[in-house]
Design brief:
- The chain has 341 residues and is mostly helical.
- It has two domains: 15-196 and 309-337, Rossmann fold (3-Layer(aba) Sandwich), CATH 3.40.50; 214-302, Tyrosyl-Transfer RNA Synthetase, CATH 1.10.240.10.
- The chain is built from 13 helices and five strands.
- The protein has helices spanning 28-40, 53-56, 63-80, 96-108, 111-115, 118-126, 134-148, 162-179, 224-232, 251-264, 268-274, 280-306, 309-338, and strands at residues 15-20, 46-51, 87-91, 154-156, 187-189.
- The longest helix has 30 residues, at 309-338.
- The chain starts with 14 loop residues before the first strand and ends with a helix.
- The chain binds adenosine-5'-tetraphosphate (AQP).
- Adenosine-5'-tetraphosphate binds next to helix 1.
Length: 341
């Protein structure tokens, strides 16, 4: 273990923890807002990346589906470039420490703090008719436990998770105040670029894997033809002017331009000049080309990795061991503080 750069005993690099739910096929928003940053910064941090399967229970209620999603998401993260030598990859449900600390954090969370969470409000409105689970309300308390167990200094996420990390900070401070210094207070790490990729069909809302309608998102398993079709149908406007704008009426064109900017690393002025006098069809073709160039190799690598079950199991068994060494230590300390040892 000692030569492993991601070993929990390596003290020199700041530690980060982030997670992703195995609740469906990952989309370009997950990739640009979170995964591509995890990969790019892998060498600079001691990384813990969690498959948040307990969180997925708030939206998935089919055992066979969850089992399949769990394995697929690992293959996907590896295909995107997560290196198990540099990063500890593990399933949340493999470690009972998460649910134990999750309960403690739930008891520490004033109801009003949880009810204020935007994601809870949005999702409870979205699923009002089907009924929502209490887990959707208490989810951020479990998420706080996920982060605090690893004493993470940073949490690299997309913009939609900012509020949950802020809540985690508040809960850590509350615990430290009530029971004595125990938790590291984590910082939220959000890159400006790609932090909120918007839906192609409803560009005032974020691209989301739980939307029933899949045309709004580019899935990382979409073929080149499907990607081109979805982008060709993306909502634009009647102004016929290609420029960056924060006007909600122009959110569709702006989203396409933002995607083009992130994926080509070009300056906004260069992009505006490039499309001067051109139509939305040409913009969409150009965006589709750069998206296909990113997604195609990921999809191909994913299909190769998915057939290697033994490798996936080995990665996850190693990850569990390395994650548990850290989680156990923190939970032991917490239990002493709260009077349970
Ligand atoms: N549209 C997005 N743009 C940028 N980043 C995004 N993320 C999610 N959507 C976007 C980031 O992806 C990471 C993993 O997300 P998650 O699995 O925790 O799910 P989520 O945040 O609830 O968003 P999803 O994937 O779209 O799922 P649903 O539909 O269930 O809401 C996080 O870092 C998130 O910020």
């Amino acid at each position: 273990m000692s030569e492993n750069p991601a070993s929990p005993t390596t003290p020199s690099k700041p530690r980060v923890l982030s997670g992703i739910q195995p609740s469906g096929i990952l989309h370009l928003g997950n990739y640009l807002g979170a995964i591509s940053n995890w990969v790019a910064d892998q060498a600079h941090y001691e990384n813990f990346f969690m498959i948040a399967d307990y969180h997925a229970l708030t939206s998935v209620s089919d055992g066979a589906e969850l089992r399949k999603n769990r394995r697929e998401i690992v293959a996907m993260l590896l295909a995107c470039g997560i290196d198990p030598q540099q990063s500890v990859l593990f399933y949340q449900s493999q470690l009972p420490e998460h649910t134990e600390l999750g309960w403690i954090m739930t008891c520490l969370s004033p109801l009003g703090w949880l009810e204020r969470m935007t994601q809870y409000k949005d999702k409870s409105a979205k699923y009002a008719q089907e009924g929502i689970s209490t887990g959707l309300l208490t989810y951020p308390a479990l998420q706080a436990a996920d982060i605090l167990l690893y004493q993470a200094q940073g949490v690299p996420v997309g913009e939609d998770q900012r509020q949950h990390v802020e809540l985690t900070r508040d809960l850590a401070q509350r615990f430290n105040h009530l029971f004595g210094e125990t938790f590291t207070i984590p910082q939220v790490f959000i890159r400006k670029e790609g932090a909120k990729v918007m839906s192609l069909t409803e560009p005032v809302r974020k691209m989301s894997k739980s939307d029933k309608e899949s045309d709004g998102r580019i899935e990382l398993l979409d073929s080149a033809d499907v990607i081109r079709r979805k982008i060709r149908r993306a909502q634009t406007d009647s102004l016929r002017e290609i420029c960056f704008s924060d006007d909600p009426e122009r959110a569709g064109v702006n989203n396409l331009l933002e995607l083009y900017k992130i994926l080509t690393h070009k300056e906004p002025a260069t992009i505006t000049a490039e499309f001067e006098g051109k139509g939305y069809g040409e913009l969409k073709d150009a965006v589709a080309d750069v998206v296909v160039a990113v997604v195609n190799p990921i999809r191909e690598e994913y299909h190769r990795l998915l057939t290697d079950r033994a490798h996936i199991e080995q990665v996850m068994a190693g990850g569990k061991e390395r994650a548990q060494a850290v989680a156990r230590k923190t939970l032991g300390k917490v239990k002493k503080r709260i009077g349970m040892v």
